């Protein structure tokens, strides 16, 4: 695996791994203060909990259930309607703006009106069935970002970036974007306003659902970046007072179709 | 109070760290304005944390799940670490192993040299503070800019972080305004919003121009070979998006087994650490830019750091302190932290968790005093989202220190007490003598007693001892008072 690394690195690896193996020869007790019952939390850790710390007594990935119900985390909604309601509530609390539209044509009209109102001069976007009609209808200059066409200076100079997303998470109000299908890494973080065009059937109840969906979709070939975006960029570094728009977008707009 | 000492305290002589701690703690405790300021800053955190915790349907069971996820990963590091590295390298990233801080610094410097770096941008990374990376880069002539707002302010002030999650929580806005005026030439303002925008405008160009971006990592996912970075400002996203080379630095204990574990750990980290449902950006990177992707670095390197973590791993009693996800919740609730402040610790990791792990990272004899500076109230253990038994570990450190370097005076005192307590006549005589000598003691006030009395009142000696009162107490017939709780069977 590391044939090309210098001796130093190889030996550092061997030394550290040998120290780890040596250290783990004595098992450690279970975490302090675990609730002593057959709670779902314990069931989630599955055989690992029952088997104790002995090496080899742990389950492999294959035998673990792909999706574990976690009824103790924040609610993600039992039905699609409940999830939608939670998502809207959470996005509002995060100070993200939601524009609900009936269809992609309406999305294009709404965003064009917004661009005029805000006097946007230039908007960056990427090719995607949901983004294309929106970009085509924009009344200002546009800059398309793609695998053969990326200029960080041009993206930086844009007023807004329009992207699609992988999923919307009701539980936390998070938006999962990826470098593969959401215009790369910079488009959703560099411009001052981030516009996400999404459909209601992209809503999933929980973070776990979003991660499982991404794993299934990419089947072992995950995009080089997957990012949960939870509200517009923020900081509390000055006297713990909340300020929006630290380095990333000051505004997060979700255009929700359907 | 400000501590401007950013020097490497690892080389301190024994007892110097303790002397500094006592001196700085005393100065800080007297600074009531500063303490009030820090408490006020934390007030908002308590409110939002409680609000978010209430959204969990069962916070205690969520803590169980988070603790077990970390426990099962740390106790299988021998299996998961190679699995993570294989997966990460198959995605096109390169892993570099560093046994200690010196090795890690050299690896990063070699990478910068190979990349012919001219400008380096960094996002918040406590591991880099631990290895004193910035000083090493600057000594080699590399300009490096901290992009996290709090870290940027601390860099301009020439100070280490005050708190490992809220680096400049001790700095007032007018001080920041003056600082920006001095270094960036901006007009004074008392608006946190405007101050944030000054940093934002200043940093924009630097992201675009940097050739190398350095970040930390909060989790390493063995299943998929991804690293997970948690942040609020978007500076880490920009640092990992725009420069040509991305270098991440992480301790070996950051490994978790499954991607699914993050569905528990990410929200818990945000809620415990900052009172948020999730931090703004939780990003998984699995290597450099792929074919078909618009942007991203050409190279991605990960420096895996041991730096005495394996020594901590070798102690099964305190191994769970490697579960730490650096949320900072234990600092925020700690009465000691709130009274002595972040700088007094003199460590990379402040607060209760820092007091537990620093003796392992830097030596118990020099750093045991941190474990003594605790009221053992247990607020830290209660706040910990991964159930680290923090306050008991402080006791474990005290015990280990007493075992390895016993204090002769303490031992003599204990022996004397045992000798007296085992002989009732001697105990009675000694007690009587002490009662009579107490006013004299107060009058003479020897140095040892004086330091104790500086903040305490010496009570007046009772006229009669408990023993003599017990012997002369009025006798009652137990049968005549059947309801006396003391005589109930």
Element layout with pairings:
The complex is a heterodimer of chains A (258) and B (489).
Chain A (H helix, E strand, L loop, with lengths): L6 H17 L16 H6 L1 H5 L28 H14 L3 E5 L2 H14 L4 E5 L5 H6 L3 E5 L6 H5 L3 E4 L3 E3 L4 E5 L14 E7 L3 E2 L2 H12 L6 E5 L4 E2 L7 E2 L6 E7 L1
Parallel strand pairs in A: 1-12, 2-3, 2-4, 4-7, 5-8, 7-12
Antiparallel strand pairs in A: 5-6, 6-9, 10-11
Chain B lengths: L15 H15 L1 H22 L5 H16 L2 H14 L3 E5 L2 H14 L4 E4 L3 H5 L2 H7 L3 E4 L2 H9 L15 H12 L7 H18 L2 E4 L3 E3 L4 E6 L3 H7 L3 E7 L3 E2 L5 H13 L6 E5 L13 E7 L3 H5 L15 H5 L1 H6 L10 H12 L1 H4 L1 H4 L6 H5 L6 H15 L3 H14 L2 H21 L2 H7 L12 H6 L18
Parallel strand pairs in B: 1-10, 2-3, 2-4, 4-7, 5-8, 7-10
Antiparallel strand pairs in B: 5-6, 6-9
Anisotropy-based shape of chain B: elongated
What is the beta-strand fraction of chain A? Answer: 15-25%
Distance between the termini of chain A: 49 Å
Kindly state the percentage of residues in helix of chain A: 25-40%
Sheet with the most strands, sense and barrel status of chain A: 6 strands, parallel
Description:
The complex is a heterodimer of chains A (258) and B (489). With 258 residues, chain A is α/β, with parallel strands linked by helices. Chain A has 2 domains: 7-63, no CATH class; 80-257, NagB/RpiA/CoA transferase-like (Rossmann fold, 3-Layer(aba) Sandwich), CATH 3.40.50.10420. Chain A contains 8 helices and 12 strands. Chain A has a 6-stranded parallel sheet. A 4-stranded mixed sheet of chain A has the order 8-5-6-9. The termini of chain A are far apart. The relative contact order of chain A is 0.13. The termini of chain B are far apart. Chain B is elongated and about 95 Å long. In chain B, the strands form 2 sheets. In chain B, strands 1-10-7-4-2-3 form a 6-stranded parallel sheet, sandwiched between helices. In chain B, strands 8-5-6-9 form a 4-stranded mixed sheet. The interface between A and B is large, with 103 and 123 residues.
């Amino acid at each position: 695996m590391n044939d090309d690394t210098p001796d130093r690195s190889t030996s550092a690896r061997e030394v550290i791994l040998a120290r780890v193996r040596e250290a783990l020869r004595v098992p450690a007790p279970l975490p302090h203060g675990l609730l002593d019952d057959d709670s779902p939390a314990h069931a989630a850790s599955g055989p690992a909990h029952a088997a104790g710390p002995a090496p080899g007594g742990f389950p492999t990935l294959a035998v673990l259930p792909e999706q574990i119900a976690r009824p103790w985390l924040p609610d993600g909604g039992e039905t699609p309607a409940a999830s939608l309601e939670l998502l809207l509530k959470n996005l509002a609390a995060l100070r993200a703006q939601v524009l609900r539209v009936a269809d992609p044509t309406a999305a294009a009209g709404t965003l064009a009106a917004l661009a005029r109102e805000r006097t946007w001069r230039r908007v960056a976007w990427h090719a995607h069935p949901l983004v294309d009609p929106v970009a085509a209808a924009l009344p200002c200059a546009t800059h398309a970002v793609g695998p053969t066409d990326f200029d960080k200076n041009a993206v930086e100079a844009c007023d807004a970036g329009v992207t699609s997303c992988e999923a919307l998470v009701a539980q936390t109000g998070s938006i999962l974007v990826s470098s593969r299908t959401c215009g790369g890494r910079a488009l959703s973080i560099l411009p001052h306003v981030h516009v996400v065009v999404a459909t209601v059937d992209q809503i999933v109840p929980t973070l776990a659902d979003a991660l499982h969906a991404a794993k299934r979709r990419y089947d072992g070939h995950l995009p080089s970046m997957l990012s949960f975006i939870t509200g517009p960029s923020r900081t509390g570094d000055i006297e713990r007072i909340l300020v929006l728009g630290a380095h990333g977008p000051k505004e997060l707009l979700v255009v929700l179709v359907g | 109070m400000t501590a401007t000492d950013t020097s490497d305290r690892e080389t301190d002589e024994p007892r110097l760290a303790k002397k500094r701690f006592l001196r700085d703690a005393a100065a800080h405790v007297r600074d009531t304005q500063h303490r009030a300021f820090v408490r006020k800053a934390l007030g908002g955190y308590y409110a939002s944390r409680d609000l978010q915790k209430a959204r969990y349907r069962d916070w205690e069971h969520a803590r169980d799940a988070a603790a077990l996820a970390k426990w099962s990963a740390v106790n299988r590091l021998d299996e998961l670490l190679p699995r993570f590295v294989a997966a990460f390298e198959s995605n096109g990233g390169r892993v570099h192993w560093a046994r200690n801080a010196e090795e890690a610094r050299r690896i990063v410097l070699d990478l910068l040299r190979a990349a012919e770096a001219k400008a380096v941008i960094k996002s918040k990374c406590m591991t880099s503070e631990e290895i004193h990376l910035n000083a090493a880069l600057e000594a080699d002539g590399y300009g490096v800019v901290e992009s996290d707002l709090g870290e940027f302010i601390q860099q301009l002030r020439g100070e280490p972080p005050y708190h490992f999650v809220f680096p400049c929580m001790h700095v007032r806005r007018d001080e920041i305004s003056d600082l920006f005026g001095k270094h960036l030439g901006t007009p004074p303002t008392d608006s946190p919003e405007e101050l944030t925008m000054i940093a934002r405008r200043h940093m924009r160009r630097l992201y675009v121009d940097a050739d190398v971006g350095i970040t930390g990592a909060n989790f390493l996912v063995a299943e998929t070979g991804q690293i997970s970075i948690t942040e609020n400002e978007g500076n880490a996203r920009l640092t990992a998006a725009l420069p040509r080379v991305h270098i991440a630095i992480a301790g070996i204990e950051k490994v978790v087994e499954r991607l699914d574990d993050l569905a528990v750990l990410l929200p818990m980290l945000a809620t415990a650490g900052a009172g948020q449902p999730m931090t703004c950006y939780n990003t998984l990177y699995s290597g450099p830019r792929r074919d078909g992707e618009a942007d991203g670095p050409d190279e991605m390197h990960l420096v895996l750091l041991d730096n005495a973590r394996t020594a901590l791993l070798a102690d099964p009693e305190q191994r769970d302190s490697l579960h730490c996800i650096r949320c900072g919740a234990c600092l925020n609730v700690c009465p000691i932290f709130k009274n002595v402040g972040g700088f007094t610790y003199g460590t990379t990791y402040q607060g209760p968790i820092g007091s537990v792990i620093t003796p392992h990272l830097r030596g118990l004899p020099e750093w045991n005093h941190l474990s003594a500076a605790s009221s053992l109230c247990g607020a830290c253990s209660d706040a910990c989202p991964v159930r680290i038994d923090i306050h008991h570990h402080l006791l474990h450190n005290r015990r280990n220190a007493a075992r390895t370097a016993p204090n002769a005076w303490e031992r003599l005192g204990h022996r004397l007490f045992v000798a007296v307590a085992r002989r009732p006549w001697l105990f009675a005589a000694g007690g009587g003598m002490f009662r009579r000598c107490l006013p004299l003691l107060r009058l003479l006030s020897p140095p040892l007693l004086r330091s104790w009395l500086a903040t305490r009142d010496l009570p007046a000696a009772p006229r009669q001892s408990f023993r003599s009162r017990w012997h002369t107490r009025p006798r009652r017939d137990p049968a005549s008072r059947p309801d006396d709780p003391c005589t109930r069977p």
